[in-house]
Design brief:
Elements: H1 24-42, E1 46-47, E2 53-55, H2 56-63, H3 68-73, E3 75-78, E4 84-87, H4 92-101, E5 110-119, E6 131-140, H5 145-162, E7 169-174, H6 178-193, H7 201-209, H8 223-227, H9 238-254, E8 259-260, E9 272-279, E10 288-294, H10 298-301, E11 309-315, H11 316-322, E12 334-338, H12 344-356, E13 361-364, H13 369-378, E14 383-389, E15 395-401, H14 405-412, H15 417-422
Parallel strand pairs: 1-5, 7-8, 12-13, 12-14
Antiparallel strand pairs: 2-4, 3-4, 5-6, 6-11, 7-9, 9-10, 10-11, 14-15
Helix pairs in contact: 1-5, 1-11, 5-9
Length: 423
């Protein structure tokens, strides 16, 4: 078979909503992950890993058969054994499944965090991709409002350490306990039924199974009806009010600013109490950069025991887009320049010694000998170590350092230069 030499290699961009990363944006992406890993350790969140592929039932049962994610956006397919499997569209369901199947209840309350790729088949837009990446933090097995507050303080510190908290607002709501939510749901159904003829098709479909979702409808036809719907405050039990008060008191004590958004909802029945989003207008219409809430009924819905839990997720790409300066530039602190042929191995040893001493080091040992030093100067490192052959045939060493000269000389003093002279 002859090959078509004109055929081009497909790129990820050929699949709409996927991307390659290199250079500045890849640095921003890595900076988000590194900052998350550092901050989660400050709060005692253990690293957790869950599979990219799960049985479809894990997500169908946790996200709800009627949600857009399950009905329209999941990458699901049958494997060779005939089982329906799905590329994970989010982390929480897999972590909840792992909590049940691995017996992690013994570690409750369990604070875990992870990050990695997720997959949703949706219309690509700014900061949203079909393969995308998220940070995720969860507390499983705690019914304390302090768990909600700590998660929110964790999120706030992450945004501050990334330098993107300016112009980002924490919006907060309570969905109440089960009794509060049931009473509110019944009042909402009554309200929307009275306006059934004026609702959009999507809202009519949600009315029977997911009426709370009508409150955040973007359809102009629905907005007047949703805006006139009753708030949850009239239906909150005393216990639910106390829970929300404890969360907000924790935020106030930690100095975290927040705003109430009584229209912020989570549609599925297993959500309870706290719902929150960190929002900004710097990313266009899609303003949420981090969001989450309490989901006390999820693990029970997956077949586990009744278990209180709360968590949040944030898109890494979206956070990276908000970073104006990704931290220290990815440049070498020291460059080793080999200016004579035949001593490349010396350059390798010097580079290795510097790197083991935690000095970020590059080696220039190829290309035009006359231009190697100039290439190093153009990259503007703190230190240049120039290696050449002396008149006596030994290795000559010249060090040019803008700072830390003494430390560099001490590191280089550990090398047995006479051994190289003998070679």
């Amino acid at each position: 078979m002859s090959k078509d030499k004109s055929a081009k290699i497909p790129t990820p961009q050929a699949v709409r909503g996927t991307q390659d990363m290199l250079g500045d944006f890849a640095d921003r992406f890595a900076h988000v992950v590194e900052t998350f890993e550092r901050v989660r350790r400050l709060y005692g969140y253990k690293r957790v890993e869950v599979p990219v592929i799960e049985p479809t039932a894990v997500f169908a049962r946790s996200l709800g058969e009627t949600t857009d994610v399950v009905s329209k956006e999941m990458y699901s397919f049958e494997d060779r054994g005939g089982e329906s499997i799905t590329l994970r569209p989010e982390f929480t369901a897999g972590i909840a499944r792992a909590y049940v199947t691995n017996g992690w209840q013994q570690f409750a309350p369990l604070k875990v965090a992870t990050h990695g790729p997720l997959f949703r088949y949706e219309r690509p837009q700014k900061g949203r991709y079909r393969q995308f990446h998220q940070l995720d933090a969860e507390v499983l097995g705690s019914d304390s409002p302090l768990a909600d507050a700590e998660l929110l303080v964790f999120a706030d510190q992450l945004l501050q350490e990334l330098g993107i908290n300016e112009g980002v607002t924490l919006t907060l709501n309570t969905l109440g306990d089960a009794a509060s939510r049931d009473a509110w749901r019944a009042a909402l159904v009554e309200h929307f039924e009275a306006h059934r003829g004026d609702l959009s098709e999507d809202s009519l479909a949600r009315l029977d199974k997911n009426p709370l979702r009508i409150l955040d409808s973007k359809d102009p036809k629905d907005r007047p009806i949703a805006d006139s719907a009753p708030d949850i405050d009239a239906f909150l039990t005393g216990e639910a009010q106390d829970f929300f008060g404890a969360v907000t008191a924790g935020l106030d004590a930690a100095g975290v600013a927040w705003e109430r958004n009584a229209r912020l909802v989570r549609g599925l029945d297993y959500y309870r109490h706290t719902a929150f989003e960190f929002v900004t207008d710097r990313l266009g219409a899609q303003g949420t950069v981090l969001g989450g809430g309490r989901y006390d009924g999820l693990i029970e819905a997956l077949g586990g025991p009744p278990t209180a839990a709360v968590g949040w997720a944030a898109g890494i790409e979206r956070l990276a887009m908000l970073i104006e300066e990704p931290g220290a530039p990815d440049k070498a602190e020291a460059i080793v320049v080999v200016e004579s042929d035949g001593i490349e191995a010396v350059g390798f040893e010097v580079s290795a010694v510097l790197r083991r001493a935690n000095v970020k080091t590059d080696l220039i040992a190829s290309g035009s000998i006359k231009k190697r030093f100039d290439r190093a100067v153009k990259r503007d490192p703190d230190t240049i170590v120039s290696l050449g052959l002396g008149d006596d045939g030994g290795v000559s060493v010249r060090v040019r350092s803008a700072e830390h000269m003494h430390e560099i000389e001490e590191i280089l003093a550990t090398i047995d230069w006479k051994a190289w002279d003998r070679r």
